[in-house]
DNA sequence: TTAATATGCAACCAAATGGTTGCATGTCAA
DNA sequence: TTGACATGCAACCATTTGGTTGCATATTAA
């Protein structure tokens, strides 16, 4: 569940589309997910494997079917640990700009 | 400045390292950024081009030097428009779990 | 002006990536 | 049990990616 795996998993538009699909209806099977795309089942399988490897989705075996569930924890970790860092940087920059403006037009 | 370009730009660990370097010291030149890695200048140039293409960094030409500045806007947009969506989903899931627990142990 | 410095451009290469087809395995239902 | 259905595995292919080397251009400083 390395951060790099999550970034790489999110890098592909098809995989983000799969996540969107699961967000729309959680717990879909492989075939259900396939019906929403125009590629082969095997291609979807590979993408799902990458998403599962990154721990972005979790699967539950149910007889001959396999249900796929979103796991938003890694995405939130990225948001908090990595993106948040740059967000704070931006807020600081904005704050600095504000102070500068206040100084320049009293 | 498509969202896909930003995701792809963030997918590579080397590029995230470059962003980290700029977060540490904003406005570095190409050579300055090179000194913090172990690859060739040309490789760094390519990565910077991808980051610039995704609008994650902005450059300012200064004589024969080129300064690189972070632009956190696209990253924040991703955080708000895309990651936020899954975060809300998670909160809802937690809320549902809470309600279920409340029902099960009165 | 000339030498050193900072960056840009292009060709080339190995490896990773995204996708396909074909076949195998496992499970449900008649 | 047998056929239909859901998924898994493996080989293969084209393109992209990350990186290199070599040379070109532009700017600063002596």
UniProtKB/TrEMBL annotation, chains A, B:
Domain of life: Bacteria
Domain HTH arsR-type: 1-90
InterPro entries: ArsR-like_HTH, HTH_ArsR_DNA-bd_dom, WH-like_DNA-bd_sf, WH_DNA-bd_sf
Record field: transmembrane: none
GO MF annotation: an example: DNA-binding transcription factor activity
NCBIfam families in the cross-refs: HTH_metalloreg
Protein name: Helix-turn-helix transcriptional regulator
